[in-house]
Amino acid sequence: MSSTLGNLFKVTTFGESHGKGVGAIVDGCPPGLALGEGDIQPQLDRRRPGQTHLTTDREETDRVTILSGVENGRALGTPIGMSVANKDQRPGDYADMRSVPRPSHADYTYQMKYGIRTSSGGGRSSARETIGRVAAGAIAEKFLHEDYGIEIVAWVSSVSTITADEVDENRITRAEVDQTAVRCPSGPKADEMIRAIMAAKDDKDSLGGIISCVCRHVPAGLGEPVFDKMEACLAHAMLSIPATKGFEIGSGFEGTRMSGSRHNDPFIKKEDRLGTVTNYSGGVQGGISNGEPIIFRVAFKPPATIGKSQNTADFNGNHMVLEAKGRHDPCVVPRAVPIVESMAALVIADLALQQRARKHY
């Protein structure tokens, strides 16, 4: 099983949802970076369960402990080990589901691939695995901000059929995003989303949604054609997040409805560099960043584990009616916002180090 992402800035995550803990090992962080647990915890707090009535009722503080790679507040350049203990796991909630693969969950496919699977929760397929990604992403983000001034902000742009109003991608901040429980900066639309999620929760059902993300001040020249293009690496990272089903960058699928003369981004002089008048390319051309904001969207399906009765079959093919137990998000997108930001930071940090190595070769 591949649990590692990156070439120079490498991240390996470990742990299961109902085991003793989860975490990550970061290898390749530049030495000397000012770093402590306080740099990592804020993003984990935004990701943790139980923070609002829109999320799972599982109560976890998700306090991170740095085990290695940092001394006297500075990264040593050696592997940084981080762990987060599981405090409120309830494996007994899954006892009745051990013989029944949950519809659209990873129970069946993990069993077919490995011949064995965790008997409680989703194991490595659980969203709890993303704690390690977020912890590692916080390190990557600090490196990017200090060395390049890069800013990464994600927000919920739709829940089910409710679409948020357009935001100013050049100005949107995390503080604005976090003003609503659903992490949508469009007030009235956010209220609609909250009502829809609560209705689904009351009905023991779930909803999907879309997260938009902007990466500002990314320098031109990042990306490794032909197979490690910027958008290819971002897509790889985003589609590795649990419950994701789609990725698009810039104009995305809507760009197919436009003519080339309208879709092209004309160049103009912007201070000390060339820039573009429009940004249908989403900040990437030919797989390489062009200096404009990188803008993309990630689609999340409705969470598979629901309490609503479902006709299905057990592993032996016998008909069953499943009412899944356990504590699960009725909609993952509010808590997935920092995960998307973290995965973007990991990709850009890795590509930045690759470009830095090329210049020093």
CATH architecture identity: 4-Layer Sandwich
- Quote the average pLDDT: 93
What gap, in angstroms, lies between the N and C termini?
A: 33 Å
CATH topology: Chorismate synthase, AroC fold
Q: Kindly state the number of beta strands.
A: 18
Low-confidence runs: none
Counting structural domains, the number is 1
H/E element string?
EEEHEEEEHHEEHHEHEHEEEEEEEH
Proportion of beta-strand residues: 15-25%
Would you state the CATH class?
Alpha Beta
**What does the oligomeric state look like here?**
single chain
Quick overview of this protein structure:
The chain is 27% helix and 23% strand.
Please give a handful of descriptors for the protein shown.
361 residues; alpha+beta; Chorismate synthase, AroC fold; 5-stranded antiparallel beta sheet; 27% helix
What would your notes on this structure say?
With 361 residues, the protein is an alpha+beta fold. The protein has a single domain, classed as Chorismate synthase AroC (Chorismate synthase, AroC fold), CATH 3.60.150. It is 27% helix and 23% strand. It has eight helices and 18 strands. The strands form six sheets. Strands 1-2-3-7-4 form a five-stranded antiparallel sheet, with helices on one face. Strands 9-8-10-16-11 form a five-stranded antiparallel sheet. A two-stranded antiparallel sheet has the order 5-6. Strand 14 and strand 15 form a beta hairpin. The longest helix has 27 residues, at 333-359. The chain is globular.
